[in-house]
Design goal:
Length: 256
Amino acid sequence: MVDLHSHIAWDVDDGFPNLYDSREALARAREDGIRGIVSTPHFVPGQMDQELYDTITMRQRELLYEAKKVRIVIYPGAEMFMNEYFAKALHEGWYRTINNTKYLLVEYDVRRDIHDIDYREDTLFEVEIHDMVPVIAHVERYFHNGIDKKIIQEWFDKGYVFQVNRTSILGEHGKQMQKNALWLLDNGYVHVVASDAHRLSGVRTEKLSDVKTFLENRYGKETAELLLLNNPIKILENKKVENMEVKKRGLFSWLR
Ligand SMILES: [Fe+2]
């Protein structure tokens, strides 16, 4: 599996705090069946400076070396926070795409409901005019009162890529987030499932095997592989992602 969203780079954001925890997480990831990880530290527009940018670059290189010891490949990336300084940050070059492709991992403030974010469409449009494709991080987490199908359909039609968190699918972020994640999966709106790992312990760990089993049981092996391996690889290679195949759910799948 390839984990497209992880805060495995230590001591650069609210993710892994030190080298030792990152090292241990990498070893466990290897055991778990993960062979590639995109390092996606938070980039907060308005709070970035050259020093932090250089520290992140250096840390991603150190991480590459650490991961090589357990035969995991690290790819560079960032998770861009979409706030009022976002457009300026893109214009000035304070961003990092996934593995230097056209794909940019972006997030909104998860504490706010998507309907309350008035620059919602402007920031995504800004990504497009820079010839990049938004990969919307944990898309399920912005809909506090259930999925807004109109917004999802519009984004999907524009070719935006949807990433859903392992933890939401498994119910670690509460019932509503799980409901959102499963609705997106059931209706074929998910391109990538990732860990969004932050810590060695707790829920957001560097792990994907449990969600892989869940996806295999509910949607079949092929879909699990698409979301955890094939689409992440497509993104790393700057190719177009594939949509999930939505099968009519018969009685058998209801029983599972
Ligand atoms: Fe994240």
